[in-house]
Amino acid sequence: MRPIAIAAALLLASPALLVADEPPRAPTGTIAITQQRQAVVKSEQIMAEALKREGLLAQYLHMREARAKDTDLAFRLIFNQYLAWFQTFVGDYAASRRTFSIAQPAEKGDSPPPGDGGYTATPALPAIAALARGRKAVFFNENHTIALTRTLTVQMLEALRREGFDTFAAETLYHDDSGLAKRGYPTDATGFYTEEPIYAEMVRTALRLGYRVVAYEDESAAVGDERERNQARNLWRRAFGGHPEARLVVNAGFMHSQKAGRFFNGQAMAQHFRSVSGIEPLSIEQTVLIPHEDAADDHPAYRSIIASGAPQEPVVFRNAEGKLWSLRPAAFDASVAFPPTRFTRGRPTWATLGSLRSPYPVSVDFCKDTLPCLVEARYSGEGDDAIPADRFALDRDSELLAGSRVRSALDAPSFDLYLRPGVYRLTARDAGNRVIDRRTATVRAPRNR
């Protein structure tokens, strides 16, 4: 895994970024730009130092300790996003949404809540698949620190494959991982966000379904409009060069997939893509209508949706004429609303990816009283270099263990790994990346499938 320096532009541009546990919850705009830039440089240096450590757990602990040592508000406003990435990498999704939050206030030009316009909720997966019928490109966006916003995209891949889509591209994949297609699974050499298990599952699923997976990230030092333009050119050349009939699915961060409006000092990647390719992409928004740790950060339209009856799965909204609702219709063709998050044994139940995965309980006794500990599950047919299907980090400060004393294997707390049916190699590693224990696990398909 190589460090990347792509967060800085987003952080410096957005007035809505918040530090979830840092009172007062000051917006980035109140911090001098020079302080922010200094904080970005420091954050990049700390992450580069972390990545020199042996093993992901040691890298994560280095990031966490660096934050604890520095209480400067400007630094934490920037560094919290970096730390939250690593919290998702080790499967601590509860911690990542506490560490870094992006408030979603109403913006000028936002559509009224869907219920006000006669729109009713409908499951997102079949509705988006139908909307994509006959299109050449579909763009999904995500919040890089909230893996919830990746879950529907993983599920969509099979439905879109049936519709004839055959090429998949994702942000921060490395173009030089030439062995990805032959291996069939991502490794540390595949990308940056692919270190997070659900993102890795997205890439793995695309490969399994027969998609051609391409990297479009601009790995130069460009930022702003230049980076967006370079990404669009890479996407056009690598997806359609030699494959003019390709049909493309893209996973990108935040506003890279907007089709209208100003982005930094120019246009977003999707706008540049339309210019260089002549293809009008279908663009799906997934980062705004989501639950936050503090409900005050939820978008007013999301609060309205939940008040009228919380959905049980990701939904979009359709009116009597069959048109889908978009919060920002000039920029996106449809907006997805996600259900409220529910945690069981320290982990969110949305990690089931619909019904693709099931919870597999693991006792903390597997760590043999050695904490911190990282428990990982890899598919039996993949190498030890594979990004795990799921993983979870434990230490004595974990909510799962807070106030609990492990007395025996019978009353030891347990947590869930979320896994597809199959056979897995489970390992527990300490902070020195040494194996504490290992075992084989078999996950069976639910009987009601």
Structure description:
With 449 residues, this protein is of the alpha/beta class. It folds into three domains: 96 residues, no CATH class; 222 residues, Rossmann fold; 101 residues, Immunoglobulin-like. The protein is built from twelve helices and 18 strands. β17 and β18 form a beta hairpin. It starts with 6 loop residues before the first helix and ends in a 6-residue tail after the last strand.
Question: How are the SSEs ordered, and which strands pair?
Answer:
Blueprint: H1 7-13, E1 17-19, H2 33-50, H3 56-69, H4 73-89, H5 93-99, E2 100-102, E3 120-123, H6 124-132, E4 137-142, H7 148-162, E5 167-170, H8 180-183, H9 197-208, E6 212-215, H10 224-240, E7 248-253, H11 269-277, E8 282-285, H12 300-307, E9 315-318, E10 334-335, E11 343-344, E12 347-348, E13 358-363, E14 373-379, E15 390-394, E16 414-419, E17 422-429, E18 435-443
Parallel strand pairs: 4-7, 4-8, 5-6, 5-7, 8-10
Antiparallel strand pairs: 1-2, 3-9, 11-12, 13-16, 14-15, 14-17, 17-18
